[in-house]
Amino acid sequence: MRYWLTMPAAGSGRRFGASCPKQYAPLEGRSVIEWALSPFLRDSRCAGIVVALPPGDGEWPRVAARLSAAQPAAAGDARPAIIAVTGGEQRSQSVRLALEALAAQAAATDWVLVHDAARPCLAREDLDRLLEQLAAHPLGGLLATPAADTLKRSSAPLPDSGSPIAATVERAGLWRALTPQMFRYGRLCAALDAAHAAQRFPTDEAQALEWQGEQPLLVRGAASNLKITTGEDLVLAAAILRSRDHRSTQGAHMRTGSGFDVHAFGPGEFLMLGGMRIAHSRGVLAHSDGDVLLHALCDALLGAAGLGDIGQHFPDTDPRWRGADSRRFVTEVMRMLSERGLEVVNADLTVLAQSPKVSPHREAIRAGIASLLGVAEDCVSIKATTTEGLGFLGRGEGIAAQALVLLSERAAWPPRS
Question: Could you tell me which CATH number the domain at 3-150+170-249 has?
Answer without folding.
Answer: 3.90.550.10
